[in-house]
Design goal:
The chain is 45% helix and 15% strand. The chain has a 6-stranded parallel β-sheet with strand order 1-2-3-4-5-6. With 214 residues, it is α/β, with parallel strands linked by helices. It contains 8 helices and 6 strands, in the order H-E-H-H-E-H-H-E-E-H-E-H-E-H. Helix 2 crosses helix 3.
Length: 214
């Protein structure tokens, strides 16, 4: 898959970008997660039974992106994983992917959205290096304490900030920093709450960076 079409283009772009930025900031590549991919291929809610069939493809794609030398490879999951009870097949596919990234000295991350708030803890069973939570199933922001607790035993957690709400973003930054400074044991970084689209107000984003990250 890495030799044709959009995949080939994505790999070329990632390689060029990471080569330029790697000495100044973390390089992160994001891929569709295995549960989401399996649901896309076999139908919503049916993917978990077909993880073995997409395993080789996931391994090939993950390995191809690891060769572009990112610091972190994040797998993006939505309802397919968020609504599932984490069982052995889920653990096995993510463990396989983590073994691949580890071979290339790349850390493994998991981004999840559309989850039930009471189910957040179970994602820790996947033993990722980094965790990032997007909006919950009802569109709410994740509780900072839940994100922080999810990172027990991991290298760190990512806290999503709403790019259209400077006040809320500031509160989340302060809560996250307070937990980091008082608890420690893992790192924390700040990112967008979900994908950053072309509709993002750049003026608000600039104010956020100036106010909270300088």
């Amino acid at each position: 898959p890495e030799e044709t079409g959009r995949m080939k283009h994505a790999l070329e772009v990632a390689s060029r970008v990471f080569e330029v930025t790697r000495n100044e900031q973390a390089s992160i590549a994001a891929l569709t997660g295995p549960l989401t991919l399996a649901d896309m291929c076999f139908g919503r809610g049916k993917g978990a039974a077909h993880l073995g069939e997409i395993k080789q493809l996931m391994v090939q794609v993950a390995e191809a992106f690891c060769k572009t030398k990112p610091d972190v490879l994040i797998f993006m999951e939505g309802r397919s994983l968020a609504s599932a009870e984490i069982k052995l097949p889920h653990k096995k596919i993510f463990n396989t992917l983590k073994n691949i990234t580890g071979y290339y000295d790349v850390k493994t991350g998991l981004y999840v959205q559309n989850y039930h708030s009471e189910q957040v803890d179970q994602f820790g069973n996947l033993k990722m290096d980094l965790y990032v939570l997007g909006p919950s199933q009802d569109g709410r922001l994740p509780e900072v304490s839940k994100v922080w607790d999810l990172g027990v035993g991991a290298l760190g957690v990512g806290l999503g900030l709403p790019l259209d709400d400077l006040e809320t973003a500031g509160r989340l930054v302060q809560e996250g920093r307070r937990l980091y400074e008082t608890t420690g044991g893992r790192g924390i970084f700040f990112t967008s709450l979900g994908p950053a689209t072309r509709d993002v107000d750049m003026e608000t984003l600039h104010k956020m960076v100036q106010e909270y990250f300088h």
